C-alpha cells in the first residue's frame, strides 16, 4: 500500500510538472500582429536574432535570409492548407542580404514575416540562369493549397550587382512570383522564364497554361509576355 501511495504521489508530481511546462509555453505571447495562423500556433521559444533561415553560395558571394531582432519559433497545433500538425513556424523581421566578404547589401525587407516548414533545415535559393544574370528564387512558405510565392533575386553577370526582382503582369506589380506547388519548378528556356501557375478546382484551361516572363535587368523586373 505504501509503495502504491508513493507511485500515485510521483504521478501527481509528474502531471503537475507537465501542466507547468504547458502553462509556460502558453504564456509566450507573440509580439507581432495577429494573422490567420495565430490561433493555430504555440510559440515554443524566442531567440534574440541573427538567426539564418536561408543560405546559398552564389558565385563570389552568399545570399542570406536573416532575422533582425527577436525571432519566434513555434509549431502548428492543427493542420491547415499552410502546414501539417507539428510543422515548425518562424516569425521575425527578416532581411534578404547579399554578402561579399565584409560587404553586405540588403535586397529586401520582410517585416513581421511568418512562415511554416516541416523542419528547421536552412532553406536554399533555387538558381536559374539567364544570358545576362543568374536568378535565385526563395520560397519560405512551402505550401498554401493554391500555389506558393517565391521571392526573386538577380545577380548581374557583368558587374556582379545583386537586386530584388519585381514581377509585372497585367499592368500590376508584385514582390513575389506565384507558381504551382505541385507543378514543375519554374525553368528558363531561350532566355524566357517559364512558370506553371497554381491549379485548383474550377481552373479553366487558360488558367493552367504556362506563363512566360522576360527579364528586364535595367528595371529589375520580370515582365509577363
What are the SSEs and their pairings?
Blueprint: H1 2-26, E1 41-47, E2 52-58, E3 61-76, E4 88-100, E5 103-117, E6 126-129, E7 133-138, E8 148-156, E9 162-169, E10 172-174, E11 176-179, E12 187-189, E13 192-195, E14 211-216, E15 221-224
Parallel strand pairs: 9-15
Antiparallel strand pairs: 1-3, 2-3, 3-4, 4-5, 6-7, 7-8, 8-9, 8-11, 9-10, 12-13, 13-14, 14-15
Series of H and E elements:
HEEEEEEEEEEEEEEE
Query: Strand-residue fraction?
Result: over 45%
Count of strand segments: 15
> What gross morphology would you assign?
globular
End-to-end Cα distance, whole Å, is: 82 Å
Q: What is the helix content?
A: 10-25%
Structural class: mainly beta
Radius of gyration: 22 Å
List the total number of helices. 1
Write up this protein.
The protein is mainly β and 225 residues long. It contains one helix and 15 strands; from the N terminus they run H-E-E-E-E-E-E-E-E-E-E-E-E-E-E-E. The chain has one helix spanning 2-26, and strands at 41-47, 52-58, 61-76, 88-100, 103-117, 126-129, 133-138, 148-156, 162-169, 172-174, 176-179, 187-189, 192-195, 211-216, 221-224. Strands 6, 7, 8, 9, 10, 11, 12, 13, 14 and 15 form a ten-stranded mixed β-sheet that branches. Strands 1, 2, 3, 4 and 5 form a five-stranded antiparallel β-sheet that branches. A hairpin with a 2-residue loop joins strand 4 (88-100) and strand 5 (103-117). The longest helix has 25 residues, at 2-26. The chain is globular.
Amino acid at each position: 500500500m505504501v509503495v502504491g501511495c508513493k507511485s500515485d504521489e510521483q504521478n501527481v508530481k509528474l502531471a503537475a510538472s507537465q501542466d507547468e511546462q504547458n502553462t509556460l509555453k502558453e504564456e509566450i505571447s507573440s509580439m507581432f500582429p495577429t494573422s490567420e495562423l495565430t490561433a493555430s500556433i504555440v510559440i515554443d521559444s524566442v531567440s534574440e536574432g541573427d538567426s539564418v533561415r536561408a543560405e546559398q553560395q552564389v558565385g563570389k558571394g552568399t545570399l542570406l535570409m536573416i532575422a533582425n531582432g527577436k525571432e519566434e519559433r513555434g509549431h502548428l497545433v492543427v493542420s491547415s492548407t499552410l502546414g501539417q500538425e507539428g510543422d515548425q513556424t518562424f516569425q521575425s523581421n527578416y532581411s534578404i542580404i547579399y554578402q561579399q566578404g565584409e560587404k553586405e547589401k540588403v535586397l529586401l525587407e520582410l517585416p513581421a514575416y511568418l512562415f511554416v516548414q516541416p523542419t528547421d533545415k536552412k532553406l536554399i535559393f533555387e538558381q536559374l540562369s539567364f544570358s545576362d544574370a543568374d536568378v535565385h528564387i526563395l520560397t519560405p512558405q512551402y505550401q498554401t493549397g493554391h500555389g506558393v510565392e517565391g521571392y526573386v533575386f538577380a545577380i548581374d553577370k557583368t558587374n556582379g550587382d545583386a537586386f530584388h526582382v519585381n514581377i509585372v503582369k497585367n499592368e500590376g506589380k508584385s514582390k513575389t512570383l506565384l507558381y504551382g506547388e505541385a507543378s514543375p519548378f519554374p525553368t528558363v528556356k531561350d532566355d524566357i522564364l517559364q512558370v506553371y501557375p497554381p491549379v485548383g478546382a474550377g481552373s479553366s484551361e487558360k488558367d493552367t497554361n504556362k506563363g512566360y516572363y522576360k527579364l528586364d535587368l535595367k528595371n529589375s523586373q520580370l515582365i509577363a509576355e
